[in-house]
Q: What sequence folds into this?
């Protein structure tokens, strides 16, 4: 029952956060110095053009009224129209969201267990060779932007030794899973970035767990090492680690934007960078909102998963 | 200040690397000298076109090759150090300063002031960093100062949360009680009593933010946000060079190496600083 109450409170909090995010997004777009119409048209626009764009975007109406209309529209799946294509944004958004989710979820499914395994291995002998190798690679992966790792990947695997496509260019409505080989490099880059962080976080928690009294008791009792790690340490290691992976979603999303742009993968990230170069403000606003919502929901799911794994909180 | 617990998500423990710490200091020092020396080290102009030497491979005359307009990639990479590092340092300084003042105030005043400030910080933190910075720069327009403001906005709530988490504990200690009963003004307590106690954490936080700043600024530039050609920004050079990757890989390889060197240098130096000040944890701002 306690758990149900926690989840309920957590969902309520998410609703509050999403509301705040919608207000902030709207505020950044509409209140910051720099008018939307000028952002759309550029500095060279004539006053007449600015006036015309202001009218099409409804900028001549009061701020609060515009926000409410926008919010009501968004709640019904109506995100307005793209300035670049003139089409409603909602349908474009949904297809792109699916494509990004495919990339992000595959990454998470591979990277999370792999990173935890690496972190545990490194923690078993802190300062050992394996720990130093994993730690060294982690520093490198942590310090490099995704596109640097990605471009070296393209050079290595699609130009010097051409085994993988260097671009995932596709029709936005095409199923990305139809060409799995085009997903290998982008997912590889995202995994590298995630491994660095999660493996080091896991390592730190694992060292702490392995130093606790109950683990020492198990070792002294003569419990086999693998059993100590898998049955005794793991249950205490996983909940905090999963919560940390949740905190890390924001970084994965940033990585997705860059990786999608690098590989021309038709996801939300590529949509938003395209929108930026066309100054398509309604699209940018919509993507930011969706991304922040996905981030919030990801955090929530990680918290709930961590909770369900902790028997003390579950009862 | 050891024993102060940082929020769990900010913890990333990297093994000690010994020589690598020195390497970090050497790289950063090298870049600072590069910035001070300015254009005098560059053999050619970073922006002037030279169609006679378009897309030439690295040679003695052009150690990093030339781009499609015949500009020397070596000179452009050197010139790119200044904007990248100044942006990162500026954004880190502004973000950490804002975060410190906010965190001190929220942690010391507590109650409704604290609640209001921290809920606003939470809202800012519910945007992924890159997305927030992107939105702000697009709305403010492409200029270095706007990139600094946008990245500082990403750092602000994260620093504020860190500083507040420490000040909340300190606020109940005797020396603060004493200052209050002496009748000191709030500004005295905040900046003369509390600030010195969080300073080591702020210094480490700042160094980590510089690394994040390098990465964020380079990612924004790569996405074509905040800088416009022909500015020799590393990220922008990679973006423009990518179309020639098959025939002229040097156009992306050298700017990529420069970014890698800059961020690894700042990471290693930050880690060294953290060990020196004996603080647990660190973290990446996202």
A:
């Amino acid at each position: 029952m306690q758990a149900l109450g926690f989840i309920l409170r957590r969902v309520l909090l998410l609703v509050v956060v999403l509301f705040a995010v919608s207000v902030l997004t709207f505020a950044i777009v509409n209140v910051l110095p720099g008018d939307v119409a000028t952002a759309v048209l550029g500095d060279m626009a004539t006053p007449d053009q600015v006036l015309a764009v202001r009218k099409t975007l409804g900028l001549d109406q009061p701020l609060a009224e515009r926000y409410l209309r926008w919010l009501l529209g968004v709640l019904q799946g109506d995100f307005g129209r793209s300035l670049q294509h003139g089409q409603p944004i909602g349908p474009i958004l949904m297809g792109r969201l699916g494509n990004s989710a495919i990339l992000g979820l595959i990454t998470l499914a591979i990277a999370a267990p792999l990173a935890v395994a690496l972190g545990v291995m490194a923690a078993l002998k802190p300062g050992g060779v394996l720990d130093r190798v994993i730690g060294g690679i982690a520093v490198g992966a942590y310090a490099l932007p995704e596109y640097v790792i990605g471009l070296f990947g393209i050079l290595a695997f699609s130009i010097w030794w051409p085994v993988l496509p260097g671009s995932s260019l596709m029709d936005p409505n095409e199923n990305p899973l139809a060409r799995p080989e085009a997903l290998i490099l982008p997912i590889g880059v995202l995994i590298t970035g995630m491994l660095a962080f999660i493996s080091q976080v896991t390592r730190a928690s694992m060292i702490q767990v392995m130093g606790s009294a109950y683990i020492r008791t198990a070792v002294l009792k003569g419990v086999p090492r693998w059993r100590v790690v898998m049955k005794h340490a793991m249950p205490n290691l996983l909940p905090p680690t999963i919560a940390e992976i949740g905190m890390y979603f924001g970084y994965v999303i940033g990585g997705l934007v860059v990786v999608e742009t690098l590989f021309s993968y038709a996801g939300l990230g590529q949509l938003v960078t395209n929108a930026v170069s066309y100054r398509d403000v309604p699209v940018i606003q919509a993507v930011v909102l969706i991304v922040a919502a996905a981030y919030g929901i990801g955090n929530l799911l990680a918290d709930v998963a961590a909770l369900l794994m902790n028997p003390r909180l579950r009862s | 200040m050891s024993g102060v617990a940082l929020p769990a998500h900010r913890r990333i423990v990297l093994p000690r690397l010994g020589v690598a710490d020195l390497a970090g200091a050497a790289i950063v020092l090298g870049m600072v000298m590069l910035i001070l020396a300015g254009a005098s080290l560059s053999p050619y102009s970073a922006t002037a076109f030279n169609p006679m030497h378009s897309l030439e491979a690295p040679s003695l005359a052009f150690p990093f090759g030339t781009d499609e307009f015949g500009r020397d990639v070596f000179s452009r990479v050197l010139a790119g150090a200044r904007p990248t590092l100044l942006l990162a340092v500026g954004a880190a300084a502004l973000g950490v300063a804002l975060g410190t003042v906010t965190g001190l105030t929220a942690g010391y005043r507590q109650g409704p002031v604290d609640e209001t400030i921290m809920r606003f910080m939470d809202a800012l933190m519910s945007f992924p960093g890159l997305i927030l910075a992107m939105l702000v720069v697009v709305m403010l327009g492409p200029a270095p100062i706007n990139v600094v403001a946008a990245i500082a906005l990403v750092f602000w709530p994260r620093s504020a949360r860190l500083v507040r988490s420490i000040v909340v504990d300190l606020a109940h200690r005797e020396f603060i009680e004493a200052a209050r009963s002496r009748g000191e003004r709030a500004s005295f307590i905040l900046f003369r009593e509390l600030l010195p106690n969080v300073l080591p954490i702020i210094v480490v936080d700042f160094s980590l933010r510089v690394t994040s700043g390098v990465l964020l600024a380079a990612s924004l530039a790569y996405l074509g946000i905040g800088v416009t050609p022909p500015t020799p920004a590393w990220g922008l050079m990679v973006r423009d060079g990518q179309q020639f990757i098959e025939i002229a890989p040097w156009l992306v390889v050298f700017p990529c190496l420069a970014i890698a060197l800059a961020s690894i240098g700042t990471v290693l130096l930050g880690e060294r600083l953290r060990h020196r000040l004996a603080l647990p944890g660190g973290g990446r701002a996202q």
